Amino acid sequence: MNAYVKNIFLLLLILVCSAPSQGQDLLTMQAPIDTKLKALDSLSLIRMVEKEKFSNPAAALYGNWGEHYSARTAVVPDSFVIDLTRFHMPTTSHIITSDYGVRRGRQHKGVDIKVYTGDTIRSVFSGKVRIVRYDEKGYGNYVVIRHHNGLETIYGHMSKNLVAQDAEVRAGTPIGLGGNSGRTADSHLHFETRFCGIALDPALLFDFRNQDVTGDTYLFCRNQTAGNNQQAKTETAAVRYHKVASGETLASIARKHSTTVDDLCHLNHIGKSARLRVGQILKYNQ
Ligand SMILES: [Zn+2]
Fold first, then answer.
1. How far is the CA of 97 from the centre of ligand 1 (A)?
2. H or E element that contains 129
């Protein structure tokens, strides 16, 4: 809430400063200011807060600007629409070397994308850099960005961090170079997407194979993610997502969701003979 109060003061300040001032003495200057302040009744104040919330939901979600890589908020909303428009892919690589989910008995809270040392890594949305650090036994060189749409993203194992803490970034701003720093055997980008500290499968938001987002928005539902992040689904535009399990084929998935192989192929830009990977996310229409 502190961020709100600050923003309201800022807006008031802007209004006060924008009052006409040329050739006026202090007294006459006072009049328009008072009028403007009076005009800021509770309704317009509420409108202003609502507008601010819409343009920067992150300000409403996160009270703190801490150092811990997974910022937790006191209150996680029951549902929240995350705006995925105006994105940029973190890398041009299409190759996922490790999916989100349980790996060797541990939860792998992101996806690993094949990159080579020196490859440019970019911010996926606009926002502000919250953490830039080196963690020898874990993420190596890593950057955490809090985006205006409410998401936080983490980029790990980079050979170099290119941004400073508190820097403002846009979607596509280079934030680091690919590498294999920290606990990793080969060069790759470890990429996480978190909402209020809760890890979401990045494949539910990004289609790495087609270098695209999965939709204009993603509906976060607390109940679906609290128990099992992998169950998170989006309700927007009647598109649903299926996570490929071992032994499944396009035909069996099509049957399961009362659709056709043709529709699945069309929707996911794949051929009928495409080899499916366990953990791969497929779109389907119901
Ligand atoms: Zn990883």
1. 9
2. strand 127-135
